[in-house]
Write the structure tokens for this entry.
Amino acid sequence: MLELAILGFLYEAPLHGYELRKRISALTGHVRPVAESTLYPAIKRLEKSGLLARTTEPGSVAAPRHVLTLTDEGRQELRHRLAQPAQRDVSDENRWFTVLAFLRHLDDPAAQATVLRRRLAFLEEPSSFFYEGDRPLRAEELNDPFRRGILTIARATSRAELTWLSTTLDSLEGRGTTG
Amino acid sequence: MLELAILGFLYEAPLHGYELRKRISALTGHVRPVAESTLYPAIKRLEKSGLLARTTEPGSVAAPRHVLTLTDEGRQELRHRLAQPAQRDVSDENRWFTVLAFLRHLDDPAAQATVLRRRLAFLEEPSSFFYEGDRPLRAEELNDPFRRGILTIARATSRAELTWLSTTLDSLEGRGTTG
DNA sequence: GCAGAATACATCGCCTCCGAGGTATGTAGC
DNA sequence: GCTACATACCTCGGAGGCGATGTATTCTGC
């Protein structure tokens, strides 16, 4: 997920690590802060795999910067990760949001729609958090207000996302009002 | 988060690992599956720290079971983790839902309310995912439909949760219609 | 009688994440 | 001149998560 964010931001423009960190923090930092000790090793990993290259530039303010640029392989890797996300990237909202944040980099609307349909399929699976035997319990059936909250919130999210998914899919497939 | 779920389920009743796994899978498994190779070492960790004890029983169906019971220290530890969750447990929805799932085990409504107010404070912090310089961008300002989706969904979730939080806080503080 | 699934538990090695700590430079306030 | 902070990068060790794999039993379907 972190690697996806790095690839995603660098796909748009070369950046140095410190700036990258600020962008990632803005994207997911309020939910999950990114430690520097996580980011820099991740950059090294991607460099080692040949997905990005670095050039040193004098720092505009202080220490010299390492400007990071995606290689062709890196650009290809991003498109691959976006087009074929792991199931966890689809089911876990944190990861899914990262996929969404960069999905525009898949230039084929059909490929984008395919990814959205994976999420749609996931959301349409019947699933709950609490069961009585095998039967999923509805919010109304729980007398624990906190567990009721979980179901209420999850339901609201799911409804909003389904609405958004269907209008976006329509528009990607040329059936929308905005093209 | 996994440890919290283990402590939470065992607080309600002694269970063996396999049953524990099914309960945890029902709670968070559709979003984040729990691997056995994660669960069993986690159980060992908690046992080693003296938070739970195991007794072997003949399996009702197949292999013998290890029935896990929380020690007094374990029960105390759960209450502590619920009453003073790490900031990440408050900000990350996955973790937060786990806290909520077991918050009923804090017997003091005031302590429960304190935890909910932490989440409230987090949700009320101004935050976005995308910025133009320092100014947070609203969904309407983005022409990327996917990023617009992120903001739309996050906003719907936030609104639902704020509503739920305020009614639940009211009722915990004796100002509600049901409390 | 045999395959396959479910029950039930476990280890190994790899990978990722993170807190703590370290290095160095430039800017702002007092 | 000193402190504090922002910029900019890095390593180390520990902890946690996970896929692959192993072991043993019982139940179900054919």
In short: Residues 84-172 of chain A form one domain. Chain A touches chain B at residues 26-28, 30-33, 88, 91-94, 97, 100-101, 103-104, 112, 125, 127-131, 144-147, 149-150, 152-154, 156-157, 159-161, 164-165, 168, 171 (CB under 8 Å). The first helix of chain A runs from residue 2 to 12. The first strand of chain A starts at residue 15 and ends at 16.
